[in-house]
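Worked example 2:
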Amino acid sequence: KKEKLSEDAPIIKMVAVILRHAVEGSSSDIHIEPEEKQLRVRFRMNGKLYSSLFLPIYTHNSIVARIKIISNLRIDETRVPQDGRFSAKIDNRSVDFRVSTFPTKLGEKVVIRVLDPYENLRTYEEIGLSDVNLEIIKEAIRDPFGLILATGPTGSGKTTTLYSILKELNNPDVNIVTLEDPIEYFIDGVNQSQVRPEIGYDFSQGLRSIVRQDPDIIMVGEIRDEESASLVTHAALTGHIVLSTLHTNNAISTVSRLIDMKVKSFLLPSTLNIIIAQRLVQKLCPHCKEKVRPNKEVENVIIEHMESLPEKVKKVFPMPKEIFIYKAKGCPKCNMKGEKGRIGVFEILRMTSGLEKVILENPSVVEIARESKRQGMVTMRQDAIMKALEGLITMEEVFRNTEEQKNYENES
């Protein structure tokens, strides 16, 4: 839906409308972009950008200036990027916004990340964890200490998964302290801290202080460098449950990534508890999806991956006698898009004695991949194919977002 705001609307009101529009539409980001003849405002919803507002081009400088004022940025500096943040009251609650300005040929572009800390936290089921994967996570978080890692690219839902685990661990007899940038959700009973690198309070500095806060459980937004990797490992070794995120493509390559970050391989077996690799994929609209027969090539891929599932999973999710996949044609309930929301696809690697032996002897991607197969890990592609057979996602999403297990062997 494209709207034209009144050309006479005051700038403060225009900015307020844009922010409200984003929060009420559950957008993750706002893009304010100058074009030759108009100012385009786009909103990212469920991972995709949609053009929604078009304003007269003469409002561009005033809107950018207004955003800079509330973000404490320099109004007179338009030649270099700037970063800032602000909070605004929307629907009687405080919502946080993170601002990034960027100089372009046509003027400054602004991207605003929307952080609604009071948005409902997702349950395990809502983020898309299968019963088998859920059981592995629940067993892992019963351990008294160790590192729980969520891995994947930016925007893959890692933080949401960690919050779901924190929610499960949160009770009055434990002290939970977090270091975040930014705080994405507010959790009652958890001591949440926002890092501020611009004043020297970064993840490494915060981690040194957290261990003096008598914590039982620590969450660190991201392992960004060798120093934070070393501090997180040390915290997990000294009797704490530590949750964090890392940028890797899959669970298999996470071990080598940590070794690349100078974490000693002999420390990993006693530190690492569980690795949760994930992606967010588009979910089919439940109102207009319909069954279709796959072509032979797609059917063969499905059969190959279903047949190689661990026996315990086959008992819960047997191969269907007839294979059907789903497509959606679009309807008024999904704005004719055929998609409604997103769901996670996962790959979970648990530390076992077999994996410990591999890490100590030869922690290559190939050997870890072989051992993960032996221990019955469900790969991300297998998890996605099962969701496609359930009618939750399309096979196109499976191929777009997951890789084959055998491709891991090329990563070493």
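The mean pLDDT is 92. Residues 144 and 220 are 18 Å apart (CA to CA).
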